[in-house]
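> forwarded from #structure-qc
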């Protein structure tokens, strides 16, 4: 927490290791912007709200004292009550976390973050893969993978937690560089 508050660098703290974050590329930002617009429209007037990185989230894993501090590319927060501290920082557990893969984050997002989100109580995890143009959706229940779906070009990716939240895979990847 001290490092991120006293530094201009984007960092994450995963499994006791400080990880510097690269600047995202054009395709990453295009995808993220499109997803944010879709999520913002879906959650308009609802209790839950989507947020974009950089946004530190403290993921408290079962039986581990020190939380991981990560910045999901996009997250959905539903538990605001009692989880905003005096510095207006969010200290709860997001209902949905989403990561867009890049060459430098692929293994971290698909292994370490998947594990952290699972055992810290996140409800759903989306992995967006621009390289293979697919979306992986994990739904967690009681710290176990309850559902897993892979969506490809031509499919409509659907949330397992938020009924009616869906993304056209073809539309998401059209027009990328």
């Amino acid at each position: 927490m001290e490092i991120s508050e006293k530094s201009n660098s984007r960092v994450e703290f995963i499994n006791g290791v400080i990880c510097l974050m690269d600047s995202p590329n054009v395709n990453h930002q295009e995808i993220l912007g499109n997803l944010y617009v879709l999520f913002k429209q879906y959650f308009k007037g609802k209790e839950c709200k989507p947020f974009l990185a950089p946004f530190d989230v403290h993921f408290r894993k079962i039986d581990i004292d020190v939380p991981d501090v990560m910045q999901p590319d996009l997250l959905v927060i539903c538990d605001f009550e009692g989880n905003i501290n005096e510095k207006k920082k969010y200290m709860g557990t997001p209902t949905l976390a989403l990561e867009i893969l890049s060459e430098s984050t692929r293994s971290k997002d698909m292994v370490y973050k998947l594990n952290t989100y699972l055992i810290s109580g996140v409800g759903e995890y989306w992995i967006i893969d621009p390289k293979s143009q697919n979306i992986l959706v994990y739904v967690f229940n009681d710290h176990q993978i309850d559902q897993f779906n892979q969506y490809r070009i031509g499919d409509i990716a659907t949330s397992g937690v938020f009924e009616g939240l869906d993304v056209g895979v073809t539309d998401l990847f059209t027009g990328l560089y």
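QC bot note: The chain has four helices and twelve strands. The mean pLDDT is 88.
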